[in-house]
Amino acid sequence: MWPLVRQARYLGRYRQIAHVFWQYGFGYLLDQLGLTALLSLPRRIVRQPAPDPISGPERLRLALTALGPTFVKLGQTLSTRPDLLPPAWIEELNKLQDTVPPFPADVAIATIEAELNQSIDTLFRCFEWEPLAAASLGQVHGAELPDGTPVVVKVQRPDIQQLVTIDLAILSELAALAQQNTSFGEQYDLVELAWEFGMTLRAELDYRREGRNADRFRANFAGNPHVCIPRVFWRYTSARVLTTERLFGIKISDIAGMDAAGMDRKRLARHSLELILQEIFVDGVFQGDPHPGNLFALPGEVIGAVDFGQAITLDRETTGNLLLLLVALLERDSDGALRALQQLGMLTQRELSPALRRDMRRFVDHVVDRSLEELSAREMGEELLALLQRHRLRLPAPLALLLKSIIMMEGIGVQIDPHLDVFGIARPYAMRALAELNSPEAQMRHLIRELNELRGIVGALPGQTSVLLQRLNDGELRIQTRDLEARRTAAAISQAGTRIALGLIVLAATLGLAGLTIAAAIAGWDGLPVIIPAAIALIALLSAGATLFISIVRGGQA
After folding, report:
1. Of these residues, 83, 98, 289, 307, which one is catalytic?
2. In degrees rounded to 5, what are phi and psi of residue 544?
3. Is 206 a catalytic site residue?
4. 304 three-state secondary structure
């Protein structure tokens, strides 16, 4: 009996998936997962034909394409994970095109009218029946609002939500099977990867979320005259319909078109690179899919960006650790680079083997031996990923997307201007971000967070100590030992508790005084509103420390 009986209502789709993978030469995978029974009887009996004389990566791309939108999206997601797949597979999956034949315009119009509860003639002065583009989840039509404003209307495919729901349920179970039955599953948390993919894809199915992302990027770039983000028209937007301002420009990959329009390609290349640099180092949120089809060259060498289905947020800590990694590489500090990777969640202390330290030193020496003009983000990224793969280290999904976005934007910039000085343009952004992370204000915020965390720890210790001593007193905890050893142990615990308590009090006082000093340096001694929080934290910590000291002493006396 095949193992997925609890999803029997999806049996038809399971069989379709099994047959496609068998057809493209992945029958061995069905055997490993115990899914051979899903094949029709003739295919189970007859030996699988020899695969076509094409590579395994190409056969996987064709299989994913044949299985439709969810699996195309899966392949595109896997193309951002070079920590999971070898370069040849990544390169092939990068060829997956999110383009499929369009669905009929009358179906699109029916969806618009149902979602917005008005007739198409009332909503738009004109509506183009021929779609501008068609993708796996939806398609885009040109239109004009009643006041004549040119817009694009993105309409979701019919029944796509039901198909994605079924496919995600199946992928979740296939991931669990692969986790248990394949060597690949032993190395990686495939169930977690499937969950992350499902969350991302479900979010893309809500066009209101994409609209909010677009508004966020538009606000972030409001002061940048070299970037244009289209406006969202919320009156004409719903979960399945998204209406935005229409940008009339030249695709960023159309070099001949930009030359014919007399555009300055050096400026365009610089502005395209500055777009991703601002997202990373200034705004802390970047577009998860900045491929050439989503970028346009507008008059005045302005970069127009569209499609914000994926918006990845970087917290200050992650940005800071990325900067520390960059600084460590430039200073030939391999140990510092490993510490930055630890802070980024790529490895643990246990994984810091001598072999990893040796390979990191080689990587750093190889990078630093070249001038910045000779380096590229793609080359550095590929070498770092090769190191991570060799030692089976993980790459968090947001960082994988970030790396791909950086490499893609660098590639776009270099294609437009082969002499683009990538690191020269990036240097001031990185230096400003590093200065902000080390500013007195940032240090003060960090100190207050540390004080609050320490206060919580110290505040919890007296209660935990009292519970432990009470359980000992009630006989719930039994220690089998000699009386003399017990007395010595009790005395040692009492002395250690006293020292810990005194140490925490001294630490609290030191941190508190440091906070007051920094606050005074920032605001001057007249800046009482800034000093008051640090003073309160100091008093609270001293109080908690004193409480702990008394509790431990009383417990020792008891």
Report:
1. 289
2. -65, -40
3. no
4. strand
Centre a 10 Å sphere on the Cβ of residue 194 and count the other Cβ atoms it contains: 21
- Helix (H, G, I), strand (E, B), or coil: what is residue 128? coil
pLDDT (0 to 100) of residue 170: 92
> What is the rounded distance in angstroms from the CA atom of residue 377 to the CA atom of residue 238?
39
Is residue 308 scored above 50 in pLDDT? Answer: yes
pLDDT digits (tens, 9 = 90+) for 1-21: 444 444 557 888 998 998 999
Name the pairing type of β-strands 302-305 and 227-228: parallel
Pair 83, 385: CB distance under 8 Å: yes
Q: Which residue has the higher pLDDT, 203 or 474?
A: 203
C-alpha distances (whole Å) from 465 to each of 333, 455, 458 are 43, 16, 11
The amino acid sitting at 100 is V
Burial 152-172 (b: 16+ CB within 10 A, else e): bbbbbbeebbeebebbbbbbb
The pLDDT of residue 549 is above 90: no
- CA nearest neighbour of 171 among 189, 198, 201: 198
Burial of 53 (0-12, 13-18, 19+ CB in 10 A): exposed
- For 121, the token pair is 């003639």
The strand pair at 150-156 and 241-245 is best described as antiparallel
Return the SS3 of 119: coil
CB 537 within 8 A of CB 447: no
| Residue whose entry in the numeric block shows the structure tokens 């070299």 | 226
CB-based contacts of 327-335 (< 8 A; 24+ apart in sequence):
327/434, 328/364, 329/364, 329/367, 329/368, 329/380, 330/368, 332/364, 332/365, 332/368, 333/364, 334/360, 334/361, 334/363, 334/364
228 near 303, Cβ under 8 Å? yes
List, for residues 42-93, the tens digit of each pLDDT value.
555 555 555 557 888 999 999 999 998 899 999 988 887 777 888 888 888 8
Question: 165 near 10, Cβ under 8 Å?
Answer: no
